[in-house]
Amino acid sequence: MAGAQPGKIMERPLGERLALLTDLYQLTMAACYFDQGMADEATFSLFIRQYPAHRGYFVAAGLAEALEYLETLSFTEDDLAYLESTGLFKPPFLDYLKQLRFTGEVHALPEGSLFFKDEPILEVSAPILEAQLAETFIINAVGLQTLIASKAARSVYAAQGRPLVDFSLRRTQGSDAGLKVARASYLAGFLGTSNVLAGKLYGLPIFGTMAHSFISSFAQEIEAFRVFSRVFPGSTTLLIDTYDNIAGARNAIQVAREMEARGHRLQSVRLDSGDMAAISREVRQLLDEAGLASVRILASGGFDEAKIARTLAAWGRIDSFAVGTRMGVSADAPYFDIAYKLVKYDGRPVLKLSTGKVTLVGKKQIFRHYDEQGKMQRDVIALRGEAVPGDEPLLRPVMRQGRIIPPQPSLKDSRDYFQAQFARLPEPYKTLIEPRLYPVALSPGLRQLQAEVEDKMRQGELGES
Amino acid sequence: MAGAQPGKIMERPLGERLALLTDLYQLTMAACYFDQGMADEATFSLFIRQYPAHRGYFVAAGLAEALEYLETLSFTEDDLAYLESTGLFKPPFLDYLKQLRFTGEVHALPEGSLFFKDEPILEVSAPILEAQLAETFIINAVGLQTLIASKAARSVYAAQGRPLVDFSLRRTQGSDAGLKVARASYLAGFLGTSNVLAGKLYGLPIFGTMAHSFISSFAQEIEAFRVFSRVFPGSTTLLIDTYDNIAGARNAIQVAREMEARGHRLQSVRLDSGDMAAISREVRQLLDEAGLASVRILASGGFDEAKIARTLAAWGRIDSFAVGTRMGVSADAPYFDIAYKLVKYDGRPVLKLSTGKVTLVGKKQIFRHYDEQGKMQRDVIALRGEAVPGDEPLLRPVMRQGRIIPPQPSLKDSRDYFQAQFARLPEPYKTLIEPRLYPVALSPGLRQLQAEVEDKMRQGELGES
Fold first, then answer.
1. Domain map of chain A by residue range?
2. What are B395-404's pLDDT values in tens digits?
3. Which residues 149-178 on chain A approach chain B with CB closer than 8 angstroms?
């Protein structure tokens, strides 16, 4: 329905607008590194520590945004004036920030990749000040899109081939989330979105129907239907539940006949309340009896993977779903325990030992093993240089010396990649309730290094022997 | 810590950047209204249909953003070119959009108001096309800030006077949410935020400490502490849990003594993992024994109102809390059932009858009754012209003919207003678990009109008698 013109709403590149969209501690730590002349290479690893209830996989998304941010990261004069006004920072450090650019490298999973807990989604290697500074934005951007893509993938799975459209914009957590939810749900297999700006920015198909207020603004429901069908004869979806679904369906049938007389066809009717399975069967029967088998039934109203599955299991005759709030905020799991941790500094693998939170040290690679039918069988997290013969390495270099390595996949490429990947994940790992835990092992090299570093940390810092 | 320079990151006003941040159906309905020449006044009411579990009040927030959007709403050439490219809209309608501005009026609760389910947060009256078009953004903007302010107020209540700081930016749902969470939590009584851009945009106090990676980048924890305390001698908070809280506390005590020798004082230590109540008591004792009674204990890591209350109930010796993810996404209730419904069109009160979702018709006012001690006793939702003698009307005119009515309160004013309001809400309505339901009645006038309209709708549309 629409061509993409990415980035057109924003006059400045992402990193220049958002350099201050960070936690103050990133800047105070940076001032310390600057003061100490600490510029050795640090590697940070981004990963999710655990699965929310009933989740067994994640879908990587948000990489393109993180890379754009890194490539264009810079502080404006206005930013620096604000930092100076806080009284926290000295002029030499502010001068340093003025010319700061990200100069490091990034290895990452392509968007649309399936991955599992503890596996690195991306690893950033750069002078420690630069790599640290990017923490807040990278967690936020990759975290949100990965959260939504992972939720949306479950809805797509539940719908068993029926098209889904994102209707969540009004209740997403803010406008940025509204855009990213449209993008991430498309990546995970949604057909499109109601979000016009997302359509423009990302080149997504956009869809819309009508609101109850539209119906109410006419004296009679059928008048509202008639007007809409005349203004949009090629794409009419009629909302039939404003007063009563069945009476609304009869009005829609009447209008469908009037449209046919003018050489047009009613595309669909939309249900938005009540017992969707029962109502959809009744409406389907009315439409079929009226010779309107081609009119499709769209349902909206509180759908996510659970309600989609329930409605279809109750023999709902629904052709497509508008999926809104619960997907758009990932209502059952509104955040992931995602972290960006220092794993190597100045050639030295590092970790923290805080209770219950362990980080895998060093630069890493994920290797994936497939069975003879091409289905995913297990992953191994290894050191980046380590060889795991026969298995597929998943992390790829995507940025070098601060520049994105071309070509990067289009959103459509990433969507296709996800679908191909998801088809290779065996069913037991996909089920919506208590999925089987996908096996992820540590390589011998990583296990050994991890043990060595833990021992050394305990001895060195805690005086244990 | 910092002066406000609101709006400086964005080169264009909100409404001009975000005119397309809407659902497609707003534009298809607008095209129908345009086609039919329907320009009569419509009134839409924004309200929340029900309480999430354990919630008994809401805190109004986000009004300033909604008003800025309305005052500056306009479509750019670029927006119109995109809409044309979809093939959905005809040139006369696109020409109309080109000159469209919002010309209506808004009545609203001031930001920081306490309100309850079914009560209008705001009512928009304008030609139906304009009032409808604004639906998506208004729900999104007011919905998010109200969601967060309502959650943050509970954390403030649980902390019993201890200062709270917003640390949620990395896991908010996107960058816009990151900014709005900082603003809304400040409005609800937080002391400030870690979010530097929010500090700049909204003039909030900003706070920061250090990350585990900072500690790990030095060979010894105490070296990291020493460097930080030398670079920021006036505002040093040391994170002590990277290896072990108690060993970390001993290092912090050592550094505090070194700071004292240089004429400075350690401000605080930060706990981030483990059994916070127990650890804080141990750390408090160590600090006190070292003569460092003035060093405060800040705790972070998974705090929201529930964990704050639990930790204090277990005699945790914590002076302030950094509140992150669970507040920043309102984890227990990540969305409200918030709706923007047509309640009057062309002089005619309207509603929809869909199962389980009833709208209060007409232009309304909320009246609040206080007892002799000045405590809130009950609310009455009335028709806007109706008199409820002795009670305080809450909705105020805030926009007329598309222009914001000055003066609007500053964020600090709204914060003060919330605190004054909250002090007047009796304790049983504030408790964190199963609060008492605040009484909200409908006025005689509203009850009568509602019944009349429902009867008329049923007769007119459904043929019931």
1. 14-148+333-462, 159-328
2. 999 999 999 9
3. 167, 169-178
**Are the CB atoms for A126 and A38 separated by under 8 Å?**
no
CA pair distance B322, B166, nearest whole angstrom: 6
pLDDT band at B11 (very low <50, low <70, confident <90, very high): low
Q: Is B98's pLDDT higher than 90?
A: yes
Question: For A174-186, how does the pLDDT look when each residue is reduced to its tens digit (9 = 90+)?
Answer: 999 999 999 999 9
Distance in angstroms (rounded) separating the CA atoms of residues A117 and A122? 13
Helix (H, G, I), strand (E, B) or coil at B163: coil
**Contacting A residues, span 21-50, partner chain B, CB-CB under 8 Å:** 21-29, 31-33, 35-36, 38, 42, 44
Superfamily of segment(s) B208-293:
Aldolase class I (3.20.20.70)
Under 8 Å CB-to-CB from A347, ≥6 apart: which residues?
A40, A41
Tokens coding B53 = 């579990």
Name the pTM for this structure.
0.96
Q: What is the CATH number of domain A14-148+333-462?
A: 3.20.140.10
DSSP state of A233: T
In CATH, the number for domain A159-328 is 3.20.20.70
Strands (E), A97-188: 105-108, 114-115, 122-127, 164-166
Angle at B101 between CA B95 and CA B104, to 5 degrees: 135
Q: What is the pLDDT of residue A70?
A: 97
CA of B389, closest CA in chain A: separation in Å? 33
Q: In angstroms, rounded to a whole number, what is the distance separating the alpha carbons of residues A291 and A312?
A: 24
For residue B410, CA distances in Å to A163, B5, B415 come to 46, 13, 9
The count of CB pairs under 8 A between chains A and B is 371
Say yes or no for a CB contact (<8 Å) between A243 and B461: yes
Cα–Cα distance measured from residue B40 to residue B58, given in angstroms and rounded to the nearest whole number: 32
How distant is the Cα of B293 from the closest Cα of chain A, in angstroms? 25
Residue A77 distance to chain B (closest CA, Å): 11
Kindly indicate the confidence band of residue B3, based on its pLDDT and cuts at 50, 70 and 90: very low
| Distance of alpha carbon B27 from alpha carbon B15, whole angstroms | 15
Q: Is B241 on the interface with A (CB under 8 A)?
A: yes
Task: Render pLDDT for B391-448 as a digit per residue (tens, 0 to 9).
Answer: 899 999 999 999 999 999 999 999 999 999 999 999 999 999 999 999 999 999 999 9
Question: Looking at the domain that runs over B14-148+333-361+395-434, which CATH code has it been given?
Answer: 3.20.140.10
- Compare CB distances from B24 to A17, A208, A357 and report the shortest one's residue: A208
A36: chain B residues, CB-CB within 8 Å: 227
**Chain A nearest CA to B160, separation (Å):** 26
**Inter-helix orientation angle A245-261/A276-289, to 10°:** 30
The minimum CA-CA distance between A409 and chain B, rounded to whole Å, is 22
298-357 in B: which are within 8 Å (CB) of A? 325-326, 329-331, 334-336, 338, 341-342, 345-346, 350-357
What's the whole-number mean pLDDT along residues B104-111? 98
